[in-house]
Amino acid sequence: MFSRLANRLLDVARAFRFGLVGISTTLTYLGVVNLVAVPVGPLSPFHAHLIGLCCSIGLSYAGHHAFTFARKGRHRVYFRRFAIITAALFLLSSAIAFACDHYLHLPAAIISVLITVLYPCGSYFAHSVWTFAEERGSRSAPLPP
User: Fold this and answer.
1) Residue 30 needs a FRET pair 20 to 30 A away by CA distance; which of 20, 42, 73, 138 works?
2) Cα(31)–Cα(53) distance, rounded to whole angstroms?
3) SS3 letters for the chain?
4) DSSP string, 10-32
5) 73-130, pLDDT tens digit by residue?
6) CA–CA separation, 24 vs 21, rounded Å?
């Protein structure tokens, strides 16, 4: 059991694909926000953030589903899990950022680096062991469509 988990987490090729998807979603977020926000676009920075975030989350799910974890179909199961993990990580990273700011009085640069490291690590772990995990009875095949 532990060795299967370790093998899943230490898959270098999967981790590399995960990083590529993460970089592409980050660039998508930055591009969308900067294209639709004032002064280039018509939207406020907050509304541009919301649109950019939705685009990047959609791309992240699609990229991890098809490319990182090479799953086919079963979007009802995988996307529900993905949304739960994304929401949980958002809440956890926000709580960490709040605690670092209000209780530890850390500067924004330190907090942002901390979240930039912790969020992808937590995301990779959660998506590997639950979101896109293989069914228990299976040794190598993903969940059936």
Assistant:
1) 73
2) 11
3) CHHHHHHHHCCHHHHHHHHHHHHHHHHHHHHHHHHHECCCCCECHHHHHHHHHHHHHHHHHHHHHHHHCCCCCCHHHHHHHHHHHHHHHHHHHHHHHHHHHHCCCCCHHHHHHHHHHHHHHHHHHHHHHHHCCCCCCCCCCCCCC
4) T-HHHHHHHHHHHHHHHHHHHHH
5) 999 999 999 999 999 999 999 999 999 999 999 999 999 889 999 999 999 999 999 9
6) 5
How far is residue 136's CA from residue 134's CA, in Å, rounded to a whole number? 6
- One-letter amino acid for residue 87 of the chain: A
* Entry pTM: 0.82
One-letter amino acid at 31 equals G
Tokens of 32: 């969308």
| Distance in angstroms between the alpha carbons of the first and the last residue of the chain | 25
- Separation of alpha carbons 52 and 54, rounded Å: 5
Q: Are 24 and 61 contacting, i.e. CB atoms less than 8 angstroms apart? A: no
CA 135 to chain CA centroid, Å, is 21
